[in-house]
Amino acid sequence: MADLEIRDLTVEVEGTEILHGVDIDVNKGETHALMGPNGSGKSTLAYAIMGHPNYALTGGSITCKGEDVTAMTPDERARLGMFLAMQYPTEVPGVSLTNFLRQSVSTVRGEDVPVRQFMKELREQFADIGMDEKFLQRNINEGFSGGEKKRFEILQMAMLKPEIAVLDETDSGLDIDAVRIVAEGVNRLSGPDLGTLIITHYTRILRYITPDKVHVMYEGRIVQSGGRDLADELEEKGYEHLKASA
Ligand code: ADP
Ligand code: MG
Ligand code: MG
């Protein structure tokens, strides 16, 4: 059984079925790219994996490390080793990045992490990500650029050390800088203990990462899966040809 196993998943949003039977397996040690044009259902899948209440699972299953997660809260999923960047609020006025991170690390580890130890770990990661130390005092995502939001996601991921990470692009103009930051972060954190599903409609991300597998979503279905060859094909042809073959 795969570490993250999605089987014949159907998802409804406000009474409309958006995903019509999606299968994906992600194992630790693998990097997968889920791609596809805007509106194809990629974020719907990410929300369903994270357990967002507006996304109703009407069929199929989501299991992580053999456990059915569909009835779990986002916190429970995180404790199991799942990282879903979007489970965190986009703007929390008055909560510093440092406090927010320490809280999520404590939640995931199931114990209060002492401030001194936490700050030591944070500083180590910080240096690697190339963030400014001043960033630590800022409030969560308040006035962050697209690139800063992505750096923060990668910082969270580095601190939480998940086994399965799902990274969805932000809806509003993910710039090329942000694409590169995510790719570099994933490359740096990748290893035998981490499986990653990177969700994007930018075929350009494939210039920065070499996924083990590429999946193409179109109108709520995975219509193609493949390896590096498929990535090259997408880079060249984009998604236009999918219309014809759908
Ligand atoms: P992608 O992330 O691939 O761009 P989405 O998952 O955001 O695609 O959207 C897939 C489809 O679901 C689109 O047709 C979109 O209009 C619809 N959709 C997504 N979220 C909602 C929502 N909250 N209410 C109604 N329709 C939605
Ligand atoms: Mg979209
Ligand atoms: Mg999306």
UniProtKB/TrEMBL annotation:
Going by the UniProt record, its keywords in alphabetical order are: ATP-binding, Nucleotide-binding
Q: The ABC transporter domain covers which part of the protein?
A: 4-244
Gene3D superfamilies attached here? P-loop containing nucleotide triphosphate hydrolases
Protein's name in the database: Fe-S cluster assembly ATPase SufC
Spell out the Pfam families in the cross-references: ABC_tran
Q: Which GO terms describe its molecular function?
A: ATP binding; ATP hydrolysis activity
PROSITE patterns according to UniProt:
ABC_TRANSPORTER_1, ABC_TRANSPORTER_2
Family indicated by similarity: Belongs to the ABC transporter superfamily. Ycf16 family.
Q: Output the superkingdom of the source species.
A: Bacteria
- Which gene produces this protein? sufC
Q: What is the species of this protein?
A: Egibacter rhizosphaerae
